[in-house]
Specification:
The complex is a heterodimer of chains A (about 170) and B (about 600). Chain A is α+β, with helices and mostly antiparallel strands. Chain A has helices at about 20-30, 60-70, 100-115, 135-145, and strands at about 5-15, 40-45, 50-60, 75-80, 85-100, 120, 125-135, 150-165. Chain A contains 4 helices and 8 strands; from the N terminus they run βαββαββαββαβ. In chain A, the strands form 2 sheets. Chain A has a 4-stranded antiparallel beta sheet, with helices on one face. Chain A has a 4-stranded antiparallel beta sheet with strand order 6-7-5-8, with helices on one face. Chain B has 3 domains: about 1-135, 3-Layer(aba) Sandwich (Rossmann fold), CATH 3.40.50.970; about 160-335 and about 555-585, TPP-binding domain (Rossmann fold), CATH 3.40.50; about 350-535, Rossmann fold. Chain B is about 40% helix and about 15% strand. Classes of the chains: A alpha+beta (about 170), B alpha/beta (about 600). The complex binds thiamine diphosphate and magnesium ion (MG). Thiamine diphosphate binds near residues 399 and 401 of chain B.
Chain lengths: ~170, ~600
């Protein structure tokens, strides 16, 4: 048998705004042993409907199976699977860095600039910033900070995504 | 309580009080399967509701339309761990098709309407509704409490589409090129009520039919193309046909591990093709790779098949059946009937095969057979002649011991004119035996046949075959060899009669006594304790690897050898069937429903 290739997919769900919906979705992932790398949810552009974005990893067949299982949940109105080449996928990270000395401070600030970060709060002891981008970019920045031993805390939003172009995934 | 109070004197609602909520759930399932309608079960909050969890799960894995609702503590107390509060929404999430917590009385009408719609359409299943006490008591302020329309944006079950027409056309091409096509009929055929359509399809193409445990009865076991149960405890001839198939047409079945055996050796892997018709897209391609998926209601898909076949026959004046294969299968079926085993087992007790033989003698086509779980279930699934749809009821996906007895009660309520037989293991029967009181109270007649092997037999069988007879936790005897309960005395305790038999020669008489009894009747049949449900596939084995008795080994290899494989062998086997013959079957309108 050929080894099937595993890649990342982003599953976008339009769901009814009921209590317990996220539990049903998360429960389905857990029960069927699917991998959930990030999960976000908030109001959509349509009244009464929320949009949930889940990043997952698997083979094409596995992702198809997830899509079908999601479709079976009564409160899930629409399911779409996105891939990096047909969509924009972004994440936001809030990061708190500790300043130990002037040298690291300078380095931190220049890295923030390179990564197009934006400082939200700062004093002599710490810098709190945001970075927006794809997850790999955020990972890379965090790695550098970790290596510099200045990373205090991070809070990541998980992925949000839209199809490229004028096309929309959902109801009109 | 408020709900019960409301229906207390309602002439349209018949409520049957059971002794245990789990049993009430299974009874509602039995009712649903026997009648083809929705089963309904109601319980009190907390422990009453947690008691129906097993029934919900059972209905979920068998796709049985079931509406369950329970009381709940008043909305203000929810989340406070109030007396008899339990989180049923959380607990039932993974084992229901959908669930609701009704928080406002004005939503109740809508919720019930939606729940019934969801439970009975698409791939059916259980829906659970949590009804807090204050909501039950509140006055509805709407003019029309039940909305006229259902508005579920996220729920549009497909039953048919234009794509189906195209796929059916492709399927017919694939089938017309097949030499060894086989149909696997699953529970989906039953759920779709596609019996006539399946029969017409089979009678036209004369393709052999095997079925899953849930598909038993969708086409009569007497039908010449029906080879019987497949899978772990299937008929050898059925497993043989599937392992040799070059095209498998699976209708409403989900290729569970119990029917496929070793997936690597199951058709669909090498030179054979699988056409899979199912209403649930998520079942297609889940367990086996499928060459042609058809997402459709089984009835509508089969109608489309029949329509296209008919059209082709009209155009070409040719009959599209594969006559040599039909002849082969017919001979195979005729040569492999069920023998009447008159001998006793090694300790002198009755062999279960004898009971199956005699049951087949006494069963009328309208009789309903309900099994428990274990060897008793596999004997029934394997041997019994079921001739009409909805006359065979068993717990499939979940395999719930204790399902059978209450389910038989529900079946009898649905079909009071039919004799209902419960074939139970001594272990399973004890799981819900309190319902004997329900039989008495509501004057419900069930023919209860207990196959008493004094063991949790199916597990013991595995221990015998795979654990060197280490019968850990499966013997139901006391240390001194005594066995309790005395099922005949148990019958008397509940005001019925009962009979215990030990000899093969008594089986027929006992069944007749049971049938002719006016009230429920228990026959306790002492069967050979270490009898096994054979043949069986070893766990993980392929469909053509059987564990079987010595005397049964030969026959299937004969058929394996006889199966024509090369083109010339096939040509030699070919038979001429006159057009009249072929068409007479085709236009036969007799229906089994
Ligand atoms: C509720 C439940 N518990 C345990 C099992 C596991 N199990 C499957 S078959 C079986 C033995 C059944 O014994 P019995 O009812 O006497 O039937 P037999 O196999 O002896 O005919 C058991 C314990 C089950 N299927 N369901
Ligand atoms: Mg037993």
């Amino acid at each position: 048998m050929v080894m099937e290739s595993v890649s990342e997919y982003v599953i976008v769900l339009l769901v009814e705004d009921h209590p317990g919906v996220t539990m049903k979705i998360a429960g389905m992932f857990a029960r069927r042993g699917h991998n959930m790398k990030s999960f976000t949810g908030a109001q959509s552009e349509q009244k009464g409907l929320s949009k949930i974005v889940i990043k997952t990893e698997g083979t094409k067949e596995q992702v198809e199976q997830i899509q079908k299982q999601m479709n079976k949940l009564i409160e899930v109105v629409k399911v779409q699977v996105l891939q990096p080449d047909n969509s924009v996928i972004r994440e936001l990270a809030l990061i708190k860095l500790l300043i130990k000395d002037d040298l690291t401070h300078q380095k931190i600030l220049s890295m923030i600039e390179i990564y197009h970060g934006k400082v939200l709060d700062a004093n002599l002891k710490q810098v709190t910033l945001e970075i927006v981008g794809n997850s790999e970019k955020i990972d890379a920045f965090l790695d550098i900070m970790r290596n510099m031993n200045v990373l205090r805390e991070v809070s990541r939003s998980g992925n949000v995504a839209l199809l490229r172009g004028t096309e929309s995934v959902f109801l009109h | 309580m408020p709900f019960y109070d409301e229906i207390y004197e309602d002439p349209d609602i018949r409520s049957i009080l059971m002794r245990h909520e789990q049993a009430a759930g299974h009874a509602a399932e039995g009712f649903a399967v026997a009648s083809g309608k929705l089963g309904v079960v109601m319980t009190t909050s907390g422990p009453g509701a947690t008691n129906i969890i097993t029934a919900l799960a059972n209905a979920f894995y068998d796709s049985t339309p079931l509406l369950a609702f329970s009381g709940q503590v008043p909305t203000k107390l929810i989340g406070n761990d109030a007396f008899q509060e339990a989180d049923l929404i959380g607990s039932t999430m993974a084992i229901t098709k959908h669930n609701y917590l009704a928080k406002n009385v004005n939503d109740v009408g809508r919720i019930f309407k939606e729940a019934i719609h969801i439970a009975t359409t698409g791939r059916p299943g259980p829906v659970f509704i949590d009804l807090p006490k204050d909501v039950q008591l509140a006055e509805c302020s709407l003019k029309s409490p039940i909305p006229s329309k259902i508005n579920l944006v996220g729920y549009n079950p497909v039953s048919f589409s234009n794509a189906v027409k195209r796929q059916v056309k492709i399927a017919l091409n694939i089938i017309s090129e097949a030499q060894y096509p086989v149909i696997i009929a699953g529970g989906g055929v039953l759920l779709a009520n596609a019996f006539q359509e399946l029969k017409q399809f089979v009678d036209t193409l004369r393709i052999p039919v095997v079925y899953t445990l849930k598909g038993k009865g969708v086409l009569s076991d007497d039908h010449q193309n029906v080879l019987g149960l497949i899978g772990m405890h299937g008929r050898k001839r059925a497993n043989f046909a599937v392992s040799e198939a070059d095209v498998v047409i699976a209708i409403g079945c989900r290729f569970s591990d119990r029917i496929t055996g070793d997936l690597q050796k199951f058709p669909g892997q090498q030179n054979s093709k699988i056409i899979h018709i199912d209403i649930d897209a998520a079942e297609i391609g889940k367990n086996v790779p499928v060459d042609l998926p058809i997402v459709s209601d089984a009835k509508l898909a089969l109608e489309e098949f029949n329509r296209q076949i008919q059209k082709k026959i009209k155009e070409t004046q040719e009959f599209p059946m594969n006559s040599w294969w039909y002849k082969f299968i017919k001979e195979l079926k005729e040569s492999s009937g069920i023998p009447n085993v008159t001998t006793s087992g090694k300790t002198g007790k009755i062999l279960p095969e004898k009971i199956m033989y005699e049951l087949n003698e006494i069963l009328e086509p309208d009789d309903i057979v309900v099994s428990e779980v274990g060897q008793n279930q596999m004997y029934c699934g394997h041997y019994l002649n079921i001739r009409k749809p909805r006359t065979w009821i068993t717990s499939g996906g979940l395999g719930t011991m204790g399902f059978g007895f209450p389910a038989s009660i529900g079946a009898k309520v649905a079909k009071p004119e039919s004799e209902v037989w419960l074939v139970a293991g001594d272990g399973s029967f004890q799981m819900n035996l309190a319902e004997l009181a329900t039989l008495k109270q509501h004057n419900i007649k069930i023919n209860i046949i207990i196959l008493n092997n004094q063991y949790l037999g199916m597990v013991r069988q595995w221990q015998e075959l795979f654990n060197e007879k280490r019968y850990a936790g499966t013997c139901l005897q006391c240390k001194n060899g005594e066995y309790w309960p005395d099922f005949v005395k148990l019958a008397t305790a509940y005001g019925f009669k009962g009979l215990r038999i030990n000899k093969p020669s008594e089986v027929s008489m006992a069944l007749k006594t049971c049938r002719s009894s006016k009230e429920s009747f228990i026959v306790e049949m002492m069967i050979e304790p270490e009898s096994n449900a054979l043949p069986m596939l070893p766990p993980g084995g392929a469909l053509n690897t059987f564990i079987s008795r010595k005397r049964e080994k030969k026959s299937i290899y004969d058929w394996y050898r006889r199966l024509p494989r090369s083109e010339s062998e096939i040509a030699d086997y070919k038979v001429e069937i006159s057009k009249e013959d072929a068409f007479s079957v085709y236009f036969e309108k007799e229906v089994t429903t």
